């Protein structure tokens, strides 16, 4: 019996090839898109799930005076790990991480830079379940400067040699000899920590840093006892801070809180300086994509129901004959469900094939490594189960509806197919187009916001600026590098800085002394630069002057930004910015404010401009060399830069990047979201148009005789087209009225995450509405026009 159902179902599907093709394309698109999104969602939600212990990360809320607002950071002070373990019995173990980027590693004749190196405590591999391929897990990090290397990094450095027992030399400001004691399997891509090498802290470093309660540069993880009450533990932290940071009541400037390991990847959108968080992606976007996947899947199922009921008149005689021959309603219902299931199986098979074909390009677009394991039996079981479920759910309504026809009325030709239940069908179409309009609006705003951030004047010139990373050794050649590079006529400027714009900038506490006032200590972002830094980046001064060329004043002159100037003026109500010039400022009483720079966005536009001071003190060391190139000859200068670097830094790997490319990486997640939303909006519109096509087919079929009568009575083709189109446009307009307010609320909430954002212009909603109407008219136009031009004699012949 079941085989007969599917045999008849196959014949019916093959007989009506156009409807079958449309139905299959709609289902394949819907299920394919939904599957890809679900793969992405599953990947994002799987981050750090492979660790078995109860691990939390320690985070700070910094509330120092001078900050525009309290800010959450994932970094903490070096002594916090051991002292908190001592103070709180709930803490079973701890480890700290200090990340070092572009870490030079040398073995024999091989010299390269590892992208990510972690300096960690000995308990790191006791807490985290990264797979160790060789070495003793309990001992590999016990000795100072022991190193555990990943498989891929080991192949790059040692080739086919066994790395265990070998020494890696690091030449830099912190020259060290590292003993390889173990090899790790490459870190899973769903880990928020990605590294090539683990190095245990040196003993003297740990002893020296145990009294450093001022710096925040370490990421601290705790293993907590099972069933620990996190809120109760956090309530003890203020007393802890008061005990260890009692000098000058510094404890009041901090709050501490814990974040579960599984939430670090996806629930840290409001945490800044999150440098140990691979592919950080906000959970709200993941949830949004999950909802969109369900919406698209529902739209595809709605299309199936509409297209199935559109053929109701054609299937009515079949139902009548089957019932006359003794078929029961349940059997007929099962027949129609079998057709639905068969169609879904075919659609999902096509979708799986398309996903396999296009997934590499999709991975390139979203910067992930998703995979649909078609050779896995569990995968096919899940796909087929999903196909059956979708087939049953989407075919249930057509099965109930079509099997309900009375055989006598059907065979007499008096059944009125589709007259009842049209409210549900129309409501489903409204839902379809409301979803599509919502996606159109949100996509337009997302693209506009991204374009706004990319084109917004950051307050400095970053065009044709090449940045080169420097370590402690390369920095010693800074002066000679600068001198030789400037000899090239296509290089218009060279400068240095301790940090790169658009990246992590450190903060420092600095003192300010106004006339006849006590010292005021505030916290501000610090940028140590060469004296020509403002000139190269074309950052204008609103008051005062640039750094003096006098070497004796180096390190004693400070330039502050407007935001910091306004902060300092809060306690000087009658003073102006010019009155700040010459006042004592800085790390000691010898510093002076010599200039005030116009505010510029040294971070992304997600964040407001914070207080900032610049200090000309190259003795502190520069990590970034900035080279301003002639725009017309930019690429041709690169060989010259490489030759100069090789000449003076022969043992150092040249790592360079155009600053525009760096800022493109800063906004990469935003671009991915806007691109994905654009693709989903296009697909939602396409699938919704199939729904409208189904409705148009159904309406044209149901109103065939009405159209014939109207034409016999003198109605024109244009009049009939307008009459039939009005019903469809009514549903589209209702969809627009529903979608626009929801899109306005959603985008208003979404844009709150951006310190600098676009306005919610009314014209976007109007444009989306016009697009929806235009697309709807194009979709239904062919069917409506064909129905209006049909010969009325054929329509009325059966009467």
From TrEMBL:
The subcellular location is: Cell membrane
The answer to whether the entry has keyword Metal-binding is no
- Check the record and name the InterPro entries matching this protein: ABC3_permease_C, MacB_PCD, Macrolide_Exporter_MacB
Residues covered by the ABC3 transporter permease C-terminal domain: 291-405, 679-792
Q: Which UniProt keywords apply?
A: Cell membrane, Membrane, Transmembrane, Transmembrane helix
Highest taxon of the lineage: Bacteria
Record domain MacB-like periplasmic core: where: 20-237
TM ranges? 21-42, 288-307, 336-359, 379-402, 423-447, 676-699, 720-745, 760-785
Please tell me whether the keyword Metal-binding is annotated for this protein: no
Protein name, as recorded: ABC transporter permease
């Amino acid at each position: 019996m079941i085989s007969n159902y599917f045999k008849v179902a196959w014949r019916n599907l093959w007989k009506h090839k156009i409807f079958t093709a449309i139905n299959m394309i709609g289902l394949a698109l819907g299920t394919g898109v939904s599957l890809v999104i679900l793969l992405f969602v599953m990947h994002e939600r799987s981050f750090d799930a492979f660790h078995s212990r109860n691990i939390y990360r320690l985070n700070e809320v910094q509330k120092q005076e001078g900050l525009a607002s309290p800010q959450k950071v994932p970094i903490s002070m070096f002594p916090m790990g051991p002292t908190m373990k001592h103070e709180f019995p709930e803490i079973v173990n701890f480890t700290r991480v200090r990340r070092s980027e572009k870490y030079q590693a040398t073995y024999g004749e091989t010299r390269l830079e590892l992208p990510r190196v972690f300096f960690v405590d000995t308990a790191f591999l006791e807490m985290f379940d990264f797979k160790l391929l060789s070495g003793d897990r309990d001992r590999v990090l016990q000795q100072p400067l022991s190193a555990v290397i990943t498989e891929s990094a080991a192949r790059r450095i040692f080739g086919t040699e066994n790395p265990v027992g070998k020494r890696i030399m690091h030449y830099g400001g912190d020259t060290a000899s590292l003993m390889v004691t173990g090899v790790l399997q490459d870190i899973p891509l769903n880990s928020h920590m990605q590294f090539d090498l683990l190095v245990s802290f040196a003993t003297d470093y740990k002893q020296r840093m145990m009294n450093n309660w001022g710096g925040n540069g370490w990421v601290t993880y705790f293993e907590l006892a099972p069933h620990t009450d996190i809120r109760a533990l956090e309530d003890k932290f203020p007393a802890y801070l008061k005990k260890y940071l009692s000098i000058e009541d510094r404890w009041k400037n901090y709050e501490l809180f814990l974040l579960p390991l599984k939430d670090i990847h996806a629930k840290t959108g409001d945490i800044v300086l999150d440098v140990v968080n691979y592919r950080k992606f906000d959970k709200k976007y993941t949830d949004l994509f999950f909802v969109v996947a369900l919406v698209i899947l529902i739209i595809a199922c709605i299309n199936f129901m509409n297209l199935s009921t559109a053929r109701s008149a054609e299937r009515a005689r079949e139902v009548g004959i089957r019932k006359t021959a003794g078929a029961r309603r349940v059997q007929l219902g099962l027949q129609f469900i079998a057709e639905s299931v068969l169609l879904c199986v075919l659609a999902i098979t096509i979708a799986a094939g398309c996903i396999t074909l296009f997934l590499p390009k999709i991975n390139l677009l979203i910067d992930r490594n998703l995979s649909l394991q078609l050779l896995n039996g569990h995968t096919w079981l899940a796909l087929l189960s999903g196909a059956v479920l979708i087939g049953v759910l989407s075919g249930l309504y057509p099965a109930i509806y079509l099997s309900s026809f009375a055989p006598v009325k059907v065979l007499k030709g008096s059944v009125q197919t589709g007259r009842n239940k049209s409210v549900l069908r129309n409501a489903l179409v409204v839902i379809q187009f409301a979803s599509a309009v919502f996606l159109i609006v949100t996509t337009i705003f997302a693209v506009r916001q991204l374009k706004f951030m990319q084109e917004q004047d950051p307050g400095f010139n970053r065009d044709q600026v090449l940045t080169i990373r420097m370590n402690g050794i390369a920095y010693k050649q800074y002066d000679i590098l600068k001198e030789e590079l400037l000899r090239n006529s296509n290089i218009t400027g060279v400068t240095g800085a301790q940090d790169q714009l658009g990246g992590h900038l450190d903060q420092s506490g600095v003192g300010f002394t106004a006339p006849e006032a006590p010292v005021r200590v505030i916290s501000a972002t610090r940028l140590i630069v060469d004296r020509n830094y403002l000139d190269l980046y074309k950052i204008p001064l609103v008051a005062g002057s640039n750094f003096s060329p006098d070497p004796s004043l180096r390190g004693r002159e400070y330039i502050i930004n407007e935001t910091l100037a306004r902060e300092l003026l809060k306690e000087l109500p009658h003073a102006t910015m010019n009155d700040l010039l010459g006042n004592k400022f800085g790390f000691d009483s010898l510093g002076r404010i010599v200039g005030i720079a116009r505010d510029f966005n040294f971070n992304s536009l997600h964040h407001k401009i914070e207080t900032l001071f610049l200090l000309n003190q190259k003795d502190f060391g520069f990590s970034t060399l900035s080279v301003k190139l002639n725009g017309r000859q930019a690429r041709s200068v690169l060989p010259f830069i490489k030759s100069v670097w090789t000449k003076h830094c022969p043992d150092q790997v040249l790592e360079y990047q155009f600053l525009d490319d760096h800022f493109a990486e800063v906004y990469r997640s935003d671009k991915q979201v806007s691109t994905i939303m654009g693709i989903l909006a296009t697909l939602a519109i396409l699938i919704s148009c199939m729904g409208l096509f189904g409705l148009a087919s159904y309406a044209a079929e149901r109103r065939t005789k009405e159209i014939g009568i109207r034409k016999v009575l003198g109605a024109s083709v244009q009049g009939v087209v307008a009459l039939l189109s009005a019903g469809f446009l009514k549903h589209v307009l209702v969809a627009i009225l529903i979608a626009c307010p929801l899109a306005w609320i959603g985008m208003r909430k979404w844009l709150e995450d951006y310190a600098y954002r676009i306005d919610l212009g009314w014209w976007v909603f109007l444009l989306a509405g016009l697009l929806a109407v235009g697309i709807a008219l194009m979709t239904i136009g062919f069917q409506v026009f064909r129905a209006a031009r049909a010969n009325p004699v054929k329509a009325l012949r059966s009467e």
